[in-house]
Automatic annotation (TrEMBL):
Alphabetized CDD domains for the sequence: PRX_1cys
Catalytic residues in the record: 45 (cysteine sulfenic acid (-soh) intermediate)
High-level lineage: Bacteria, Pseudomonadati, Spirochaetota, Spirochaetia, Leptospirales
Keywords: Antioxidant, Oxidoreductase, Peroxidase, Redox-active center
Protein name: C-terminal domain of 1-Cys peroxiredoxin
GO terms, biological process: cell redox homeostasis
Domain Thioredoxin stretches: 3-159
Gene Ontology molecular function terms on file: peroxiredoxin activity
Family per record: Belongs to the peroxiredoxin family. Prx6 subfamily.
Superkingdom of the source species: Bacteria
GO CC terms in record: cytosol
PROSITE patterns, per database record: THIOREDOXIN_2 (PS51352)
InterPro entries (alphabetical): AhpC/TSA (IPR000866), Peroxiredoxin_AhpC-typ (IPR024706), Peroxiredoxin_C (IPR019479), PRX_1cys (IPR045020), Thioredoxin-like_sf (IPR036249), Thioredoxin_domain (IPR013766)
Amino acid sequence: MALRLGDEAPNFQAETSEGKIDFHEYLGQSWGILFSHPKDYTPVCTTELGYVSKIKPEFEKRNVKVIALSVDPVDSHKGWISDINETQNTKVNYPIIADADKKVSNLYDMIHPNASETTTVRSVFVIGPDKKVKLTLTYPASTGRNFDELLRVIDSLQLTSQFSVATPANWKDGEDTIIVPSVSDEDAKKKFPKGFRTIKPYLRYTPQPNK
């Protein structure tokens, strides 16, 4: 059964390129991103894993732990990591789950038989400190993910979890936000001391509250 937003992210124990982990213990009180790869030694995945290594400090700034998954054993992962480090001019600095028995892939519904019977799709799960699924994305095996977009999404999720706001289309950190409809104008005056502007009764903009 597919995981839905608000569901608890299933816990699991697994071998990784950095040793055995308990997933929930690994996350601790952090946010998390779990992202899957069809298999080792594939070209698009090589670029993805390399890029995530380079921007890992951006995830750490946001209290986000990243972890990858591929349906190959640890020894294969270690050889592939050497290739990633060499070709992407980086150093892989986070664990890659070895899911040869596809236990985790099936737990998270990462195998879509109509796309491939044997390999995972490019799934992304953003998980909150409460271990609930906050966002899911699914890409076909041929299309690399936009990890800058995932940073943007994390900024929005973390902001909207703390304040009664939503973020508009193409929003970036530092830009105006939208007051959620459940907040009255009277309450908005108290909650948002920077003020707000009303376009329509249901569309009210306010400067980003935590800036």
